[in-house]
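We were asked to recover a plausible sequence for a given structure. The inputs and outputs are reproduced exactly as logged, with field labels preserved.

PROBLEM: sequence recovery
POSITIONS: 287
GIVEN STRUCTURE:
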């Protein structure tokens, strides 16, 4: 066999060896949700439940939970809601809001709770809020380095000249004006493989959104935002009078109910304190 023939044989054998090695080594599994931390981001003590349930339990005091959610997906961290501002924690007796209708409290600062699990604000890759009320976007400016995902309608309301008309407080999230932003017009698959989906659920605010998360062990969970503030309102499809658009709100609840059925999903109602108490909170996590 001459030199040229020997070289051809060597090339063929090397190619076959590479092919066998490639077949023997399975491709790396695509990144997906590994775990989700549920973080205590404050509480709301209200004098009258009927503020949220018109005509029902008038004058009955109510405590609302307020959670944030931190999702680990491969090398990325996604934060959903940021709760009441950390400044609230500096006033242990609470801060009165809405003309004294309720008092807000924060036991610990979000920055400290993140540090407890080894995460810095600068580590957050993706940022999204159910909506722009102060109990959900209170620490918004802390995460100006992340990519913000927000419905176009909510962006226009929150960053427009009439933000206060929608009961938004721009000082809480003003630094997000210059952050990388993806403006949405409907549902959005965050990572492109179905594990985390932003759901357009307007009604409470112009661009309110909810989040569907497929956890590897627990299964599918839908984070409600404020489509309903507690289970009784959800069960009775009841909305507060201050919702931006009650027709949209009703349609959003039915959309989420259909998704729950189709995906065998749990609904985690952000402000429902009894339900929140049954869910592991950070530094524990849900898989």
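RECOVERED SEQUENCE:
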């Amino acid at each position: 066999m001459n030199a040229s023939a020997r070289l051809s044989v060597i090339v063929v054998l090397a190619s076959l060896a590479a092919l066998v090695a490639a077949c023997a080594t399975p491709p790396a599994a695509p990144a997906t949700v590994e775990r989700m931390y549920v973080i205590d981001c404050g509480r709301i003590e209200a004098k009258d439940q009927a503020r949220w349930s018109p005509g029902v339990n008038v004058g009955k005091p109510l405590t609302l939970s307020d959670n944030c959610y931190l999702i680990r997906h491969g090398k990325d961290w996604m934060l959903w809601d940021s709760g009441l501002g950390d400044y609230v924690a500096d006033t242990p007796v609470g801060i009165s809001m809405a003309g004294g209708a309720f008092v807000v409290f924060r036991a610990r600062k979000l920055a400290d709770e993140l540090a407890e699990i080894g995460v810095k604000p600068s580590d957050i890759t993706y940022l999204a809020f159910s909506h722009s009320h102060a109990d959900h976007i209170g620490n918004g400016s802390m995460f100006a380095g992340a990519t913000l995902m927000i419905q176009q309608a909510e962006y226009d309301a929150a960053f427009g000249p009439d933000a206060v008309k929608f009961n938004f407080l721009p000082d809480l999230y003003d630094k997000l004006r210059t952050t990388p932003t993806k403006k949405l017009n409907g549902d959005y698959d965050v990572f492109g493989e179905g594990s985390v989906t932003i759901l357009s659920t307007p009604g409470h605010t112009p661009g309110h959104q909810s989040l569907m998360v497929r956890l590897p062990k627990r299964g599918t969970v839908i984070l409600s935002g404020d489509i309903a503030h507690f289970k009784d309102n959800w069960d009775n499809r009841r909305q507060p009078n201050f919702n931006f658009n009650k027709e949209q709100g009703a349609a959003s609840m039915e959309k989420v109910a259909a998704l729950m059925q189709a995906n065998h999903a749990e609904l985690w109602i952000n402000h429902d304190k009894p339900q929140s108490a049954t869910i592991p909170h950070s530094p524990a996590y849900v898989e």
